[in-house]
Amino acid sequence: MKGNPKLIDALNMLLAGELTAINQYIVHAEMCEDWGYGKLHEHFEKRAISEMKHAEKLIGRILFLEGSPVVSTLNKISIGKDVPAMLANDHKAEADTIKDYNATIALAAEVKDHATRDFLQEILNDEDKHIDDIEALQDQTEQMGIQIFLSTQSEE
Q1: 106: domain range?
Q2: In terms of CB atoms within 10 Å, which end of the chain has fewer, N or C?
Q3: Mean pLDDT for each consecutive 10-residue tract of the chain (156 residues)?
Q4: Binding residue per annotation — 18?
Q5: How many structural domains does the chain have?
Q6: In a domain, 36, yes or no
Q7: Is 51 part of any known ligand binding site?
């Protein structure tokens, strides 16, 4: 099915965001593992895997629309130097991603590609959960203080 070229470009823009997120979350996961924060490592790693699934779905949709997936483009990767910076960077990335998904969903509706709109809505629901999870961790660091929070993140 030949898709709308503007929508295919927007899907590739979303793909770049997902590929960027994978890299950022994997680095954050490995940093946490190196620091001994196994629970945070698992948190970041699970989110990276979720983003990998999003990228895979986007690639599949772009191909279905007879477009060419662009996997060589990444956005700026923002690696935090400590856990609060990681969470802040991830929150910003997720907020930007949510904005981009909403805009692309609106575009899909505008070009009357309701299947792509519905497909994107499913991924947006995951992204909403990601930002909610990040905000929960940020709340915990605020309420407990960073030292106490981090003491709860090692796996013994």
Answers
A1: 5-70+100-151
A2: C
A3: 94 98 98 96 97 98 97 96 97 97 98 96 97 97 95 85
A4: yes
A5: 1
A6: yes
A7: yes
